[in-house]
Amino acid sequence: MGYVFNFHDAIAYEKWFNKKRNVHKASLETRLMLHMLKPLRNETLLDIGCGTGVSILPLLKEGIQVTGLDPSPYMLDIAYKNIKNRADLYRGFAEDLPFEDNSFNHASLFTTLEFVDDPEKAIEEACRIAKDRLFIGVLNSYALKGIQRRVKGIFNESLYNKARFFNIWELKQMIRKTLGDVPVTWRTVCHLPVGQGKLAGKIEDSSLVQRFPFGAFAGMVVTLVPRFKTRPLILKYQKKPSGETATGFAGSIRITESKKING
């Protein structure tokens, strides 16, 4: 089940995002998600671990049909206050999504893996319900800011005590283990300690800088490729008595049937 945000966590989270410098950081992160995922207008997306709806709002502005899911009723209360009826919101867990296979075009795990018990299961479930692409956004363990957050968590009680940080290579390893050799792309943002202004914006938006694996926020897009397996089926027929002309092969015929598996 992982860590579920309580009432005080939800209030603190909302206050943190309302600070000017954090609004800018959140904007960099959501812009990266949109740039990498490239969802089309009217496509559907499940935001797994939607929290207070910060990652839902930019998607709605792009005309995406978004559904949000989070295990915390307190986070969902704030999300509903921010979003109203523009998106469906559900309470549930990333490792056990209450949706049928291929229910959405895309799925998003936006700073969600940090708080789940089984990240690999969460990725597997996200790929089960999505048809096209999956976006994973994490707090980067290789970033200087990530190290500072973990050190701070040693001496002061905070949400970072409950979070597990990831890096690009850990995410790739989990994805390959779960999905096999599927197409994966990654970028990072929030490289600068303070990142406002035109120059800072150009640096953060630079494709070269985003290829450095040390930004505080790492984004990864997985293109979901359908996989197929075959299984032998035995076709039996009645063998004619000896002396009569056989119209088919003697014995039984082995054929294969393709069965689609969600990738």
Tell me what you see in this structure.
Mean pLDDT is 86; it is low at 248-263. The protein has helices at 7-17, 20-37, 57-61, 73-83, 119-129, 144-155, 168-179, 198-205, 207-210; strands at residues 44-48, 65-70, 88-91, 104-110, 130-139, 184-189, 217-223, 227-235, 253-261. The chain has two domains: 7-225, Vaccinia Virus protein VP39 (Rossmann fold), CATH 3.40.50.150; 229-261, no CATH class. Helix 5 links the parallel strand 4 (104-110) and strand 5. It is globular, with a radius of gyration of 23 Å. It has 263 residues and is an alpha/beta fold. Strands 3-2-1-4-5-7-6 form a seven-stranded mixed β-sheet, with helices on both faces.
